[in-house]
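#random but structural
TW: two for the price of one
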Amino acid sequence: MHGKPFTIWSYDGKMVYERITEALEEFDSKYVVGVGGYGTVYKAEMSSEVFAVKKIHAPEDGEVQNLKSFENEIRALTEIRHQNIVKLYGYCSHSRYSFLVYEFLSGGSLRSVLNHKEQAIEFDWKKRVMAVKSIAKALSYMHHECSQPIIHRDLSSNNVLFDSDWAAHVSDFGTAKLLKSDSSNWTSFAGTFGYIAPELAYTMEVNEKCDVYSFGVVTLEIIMGKHPGDLATLLEGTQGIPHTEFLDKRLPPPVELVAKQVKLLVEVAFSCVHKSPHSRPSMMNITVNLSNERRPANKCETIL
């Protein structure tokens, strides 16, 4: 993007605040493009550029969770810069409105694509393989290449967004946690039902393997074209069933190299949703497995 109108700013928040509230006409509902757990997302056009603006829900009496999510997202996204992670350009904390400003990704969410027949068909096997690889790279970067590992904690098909070229980006870091090596990583429960690692039902200790499980569910969703449902039942019934039985029937079967890649995705996905966290692979191993090549790690850069 050329000449960003703002970065993670501290220089003139008042000017940016006024420009955004003016562009969105005081957050008029006609600009809403999505609603999340702790904020509403708007599409803002300013100076021929388009941005996504997440306005934080006003807290209820005594509620501080939205503010915590706001701070979490800022903390996580100012630590990371990766081509498959949504870019945070700035944020404003104001008594009237608090919001974050990101790049606008016009392709919508993975969930909306899979739920829309024409888009799902356009999202062919080659694009699906690339999407899984991109999500894996983003998580591997967060887990293994940052000064403090970052756990997303809420990876789901709602939180994977596409740009106009079908490149996948991981978004929504409101529940992300930076792991500390010198202290406990126990935390409050977070995540989306259907994507949460089973061990979190009885322990609140967060580690990378929680994200690996969610990645496995999202990968199965990409392969099947829908959420896989109850995984315990699915895993019990997979013995001896060819992987082609799990493929989205709206698409013609993959062929040649893409068919091999899709088969590998199925194998990787099932290894990620293993009931035992210790039996799940790391995101680094998954990325290497999917790419069949080793690349030197790029260390984290801060967007300041």
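TW: number two ↓
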Amino acid sequence: MKLFVCDHCGNTVYFENALCERCGHQLGYLPESNALVSLVEDGGLWSTPAFPDDAYVFCENAHHGACNWLIRAEPGGDIYCAACRHNDTIPAIADQRNLLRWQIIERAKKRLIYSLLRLDLPLETRNENPAHGLSFRFLADLPVAAGPVLTGHEGGVITIALAEADDAEREARRASMGEPYRTLLGHFRHEIGHHYWDLLVDRQPSQDRFRTLFGDERADYGEALRAYYASGAPAGWPQNYISAYATAHPWEDFAETFAHYLHITDTVEMASAFGVRARPRTEDAGLAVHVDFDPYVQRDVQTIIDNWVPLASMLNNLNRAMGHPDAYPFILTPAVIEKLGFVHDLVHGRRLPH
């Protein structure tokens, strides 16, 4: 994520801000320009000094406090922004609790879409591509007899359980499943990994290389998950997998790796925006870091990793100093880095070796 600045007063603002707290100007995000711009209202439309020749409207979901993205004002144009047009189902927002949770989910989803746009990955809606378009379903749990909503992906449709927007509920699920890390954004990044496996790996030239690194996805998925939940990850799994869950099946290994690629890339971009540079007062020169590049366009994955490792160490130590768990409780082994390199080459459209 880049660091945004109000173009009216120079105040640092967050990606989610709809208002500059210093100058009071309305703010809106323009995905095609990757800009959070100050706005002036004129007859129900909005203009910005940053792009004075265009007029804009807010996404329809701005009326619910769930979006700050802009759309170019055009007769008969879409009323939903580049992110919200992928929504298939939202909860009943007349219920205030559902509304608050949906707003939280939308903030995480926007950060996902930000990364996908920066990487120029395919982003078709179900209307544009009924077979492989991307859509989201945000569902509240039904009565107990129906069972809880399960977060997951199937054929381009990503379902997120609304309960995951509740910090206490999400932490309870994380603890009960023995996970070191569980966030809404992590859910989005994992499930979108399944979507891009379908688009970029399945029956594509990259599939042979995928099977070499991740395993043969033709292994029975249901049986693999049953075995994982019954017995857990095999001994020594950290040498070859980014997480215990990645050992369950090659599809899950890819989705976990894809999620971590997005975690790393987006955090390194923010570090670059802050001009982070650090050198620990130890003899470990490998923990020195000076992030001064854009990881979203970096062609060499090793450059991203070389900066991420010391950055993650710094983040973890800062968290521990505040009494919090590690921000990134994972280890990047050579085998895991090779898988991250596969994802890097894949999303940048490179030819992959067989």
